[in-house]
Amino acid sequence: MATTKEELLTFQWAGKDKRGKTLKGERSGRSEILVKAELRQQGITPTSVKKKPRPLFGGAGRRITPADIATFSRQLATMLTSGIPLVQSFGIISAAAENPRLKSMIDKIRIDVESGATLAEAIAKYPVYFDQLYVSLVEAGESAGVLDQVLDSIARYKERIESIKGKIKKALFYPMAVIAVAVIVTAVLLIFVIPQFEDIFQGFGADLPAFTRMVIDLSEFVRSQGWLMLIAFIGAVAGLIALKKRNKKFAHFLDRISLKIPVIGPVLEKSALARFSSTLATTFAAGVPLVDALKTVAGATGNIVYEEAVHQIRDDVAVGHQLQLAMQQTGLFPPML
């Protein structure tokens, strides 16, 4: 029975080649008939094609991460550089993929390419995993006939971005850990330790100093209203995140404030500059014109303040200004860059 256009299934097949040797394997397709046709095109006479049963647990697989896309890009670039055809490369990568979701996506891309779509058109159907920058670079590489070189540049770019993310996480881990420990210790003191001292102080029969009274009152408030405070804090954080996604002015305000936070601000600033430089270098390597490259690079900075600055740079360059002068006018880029 044929599946719908978008559904893709995994089939277990067995067959014989021209020498009569029995072969077995797995292949993704939309129906048994199509899988048999693909096997015959490869010189294999299918004797059995059955839909692979789904496992009871973990069949859906984990979500596809940016690291998965970086690995996929590197594998595809390596195979194309080695002279392996594009469709065959997808089949090899899919067979080696351990994540069912990634495997399914690669198989769908392979089928689209086999059906006559360009690689850029095929991956553009998955904007969550392949952003506009990725699609534009692939499209430029296909047009210029240097897809293998462009994919190699994309792979190096993705690997650099993942490396930058790792360094940012390491840099932010210590201050965040210190803050978390301070909050936990303070909560333990207010909830468990201060009440013990309160009983001792009450036995003195004298008036307590104002500061001591304030600490005891704070302890009582945390013990009685602590859960409400926690719920309010979580709600406030969720509200800020939602408002940032929907309100561009508020997002600009938050991102600008975050750049001024001690310790964290400089890390975020260097991250935005590193992403800007790396992305722009990758687009240049792919032969993308400067004005078009700046339009694509803006969204890769990870900070709306720098994103708007890059848009301003693009507008200045489009009317004839030098890139160095346009960057200088924003006041966000260091002279060395």
Automatic annotation (TrEMBL):
It is a multi-pass membrane protein. Residues 72-195, 276-337 form the Type II secretion system protein GspF domain. GO terms for cellular component: plasma membrane. Keywords: Cell inner membrane, Cell membrane, Membrane, Transmembrane, Transmembrane helix, Transport. GO terms for biological process: protein secretion by the type II secretion system. It comes from the Bacteria. Gene3D superfamilies: Type II secretion system (T2SS), domain F (1.20.81.30). The chain crosses the membrane at residues 172-194, 226-243. PROSITE patterns: T2SP_F. It is found in: Cell inner membrane. InterPro entries: GspF/PilC, T2SS_GspF/T4SS_PilC_CS, T2SS_GspF_dom, T2SS_GspF_sf. Belongs to the GSP F family. This is Type II secretion system F family protein. It comes from Spiribacter salinus.
